[in-house]
Amino acid sequence: MAMRTNMIRDEHMTVSYDMVNGWTVVEIDGDVDAHTSPVIREAVLKLIDEGHRHFVLDLSFVSFMDSMGLGVVVVVTKRIRKHQGSLRIAVASSRILRVFDLSGLREGYEIYPSPEDATRHAP
């Protein structure tokens, strides 16, 4: 069983991560918006600086995402790729998938229905 490490926990959201089959699974629980996006960005960039390269961004517990949330996904994607890493996104909510569809970003990402599906094969 993986050991989840909390990075951020406040009244608006929780960001935690664990390692599964070579992937750093970053779980976000809460809204991803103008208020929380900078904090999420800093958390992921810190993991990259610590040497993590292959990420699954788990949005399973995200109830709301706006354009600032999409922006943070794009920013961390660029940084991960700059470090020869990879990113998969786990999201089951049709509401959050629709945000990716409307923005035109869905085609640019490997999107899985769950973190278990995203981590089934090692990077």
List the helices and strands and how they pair.
Elements: E1 5-9, E2 13-20, E3 23-30, H1 37-49, E4 54-61, H2 67-82, E5 86-90, H3 94-103, E6 110-112, H4 115-118
Parallel strand pairs: 3-4, 4-5, 5-6
Antiparallel strand pairs: 1-2, 2-3
Helix pairs in contact: 1-2
CATH architectural designation? 2-Layer Sandwich
Instruction: Give me the side-by-side strand order of the main sheet.
Output: 1-2-3-4-5-6
Strand content: 25-35%
Classified by CATH, the class is Alpha Beta
C-alpha end-to-end distance:
19 Å
Question: Keywords for this structure?
Answer:
4 helices; alpha/beta; Transcription Regulator spoIIAA; 123 residues; 35% helix; STAS_dom; six-stranded mixed sheet; globular
Short summary:
By secondary structure, the protein is an alpha/beta fold. It is 35% helix and 30% strand.
Description of the structure:
This protein is 35% helix and 30% strand. Strands 1-2-3-4-5-6 form a six-stranded mixed beta sheet. It is built from four helices and six strands, in the order βββαβαβαβα. It starts with a strand and ends in a 5-residue tail after the last helix. The mean pLDDT is 93. It has one domain (5-118): Transcription Regulator spoIIAA, CATH 3.30.750. It has 123 residues and is α/β, with parallel strands linked by helices.
